[in-house]
Amino acid sequence: MSIQIENVSKKFGTFQALNNINLEIPDGQLVALLGPSGSGKTTLLRVIAGLETADEGAILFDGDDLTDAHVSNREVGFVFQHYALFKHMTVFENMAFGLKVRKKRNRPSPSAIKEKVYELLQLVKLEGYAGRFPSQLSGGQRQRVALARALAVEPKILLLDEPFGALDAKVRKELRRWLRKLHDEVHITSVFVTHDQEEALDVADQIVVMNEGKIEQQGTPDEVYDHPASPFVYDFLGNVNLFRGRLNHGKLSVGSAKLEAIGHQDAADLDAVGYVRPHQLAIERVKQSEDAIPAIVTFSHSVGPVVYIEMRLQDSNEFVEAEISKEEFNRLALTKGELVYVRPKEVKVFIPEDFVI
Q1: Structure confidence by residue, pLDDT tens digits, 220-272
Q2: Cβ neighbours of residue 101 under 8 Å, at least 6 residues apart?
Q3: What's the rounded Cα separation, in Å, for the pair 298 and 309?
Q4: For the purposes of burial, counting CB atoms within 10 Å of the CB of 138, is it exposed (0-12), middle (13-18) or buried (19 or more)?
Q5: Residue 308 in contact with residue 321, Cβ under 8 Å?
Q6: What angle do CA 232, 179, 49 make, to 5 degrees?
Q7: Which residue among 11, 36, 269, 292 is least crowded, i.e. fewest CB within 10 A of its CB?
Q8: Inter-axis angle of helices 110-123 and 91-100, nearest 10
Q9: 224/150 Cα distance (integer angstroms)
Q10: Mean pLDDT score of the chain, rounded to an integer?
Q11: What phi-psi label fits residue 30: left (phi over 0), alpha (psi between -120 and 50 degrees) or beta?
């Protein structure tokens, strides 16, 4: 089932939580609403669910206007960050709850409910846990029960609010893979809220980056990471180095270096900033081109096979960080205080008008 969000706005007092949101979520996709706290992502999710009412705009499912429909009539499954399981009920009873409380005419038979629950237990890899209580489960297992409970009523749309936020890093990573696999099996349109960039990039078909109640960019993980539409998206989706300089006819002058500024051939003598990710910085001992910038090595540390090199640009007090392999680090044999040259392999230049004030 597809979701259409048309001109949706929402205020809480004087706070503008959502500002004229327009978004289409195709049928069967897993979409991440990504942004910092206060960006509006959870409010948007709750408006889709019917847990909040939009001040303006419309919510449509497959073209049907459900803007004023009660949450019980939207056929959505909702999964919260903190599981919201019934502590006094077993895993089986939690998963069967939504089916047992249906009106009598729509309620499956006890045997059909049992069959459905055991089918879901197998789907979420919790066979043998039917008789346990939530207190007897790990955090990851509880979240899988919560997901299975939401799926038991066969919703047309699955909504997840920071589903892995309460779990430790290793369990989060395992559950991300599991959610991706589960989604590929059930093919239900799913929307999940997260502030974790890695989580969104790892799991989603589409990412919607939000900031201050607006959508900054929507696209595939590769599109938003490799081709950010704004400085905010570039900065929010991972570490980035800033090279401040003057932009003139397709060249950004940073000290004595000149960086290629694609798309800015018509710009004349403007302040601008070049954005470069750490893995896009090459380090050289000898200046070999006009885009090489002198820098002083200040610190280095390794994380597994990757080494991070911190450097101070020679002509300023700006610091940059490069990410290189351990083999490359050993080959360069860099030492603290040494003069080197950093060369951006790829740079995205923004002029002041590109910035959100």
Answers
A1: 999 999 899 999 999 999 899 999 999 999 899 998 889 999 888 888 889 99
A2: none
A3: 8
A4: exposed
A5: yes
A6: 70
A7: 269
A8: 130
A9: 30
A10: 91
A11: beta
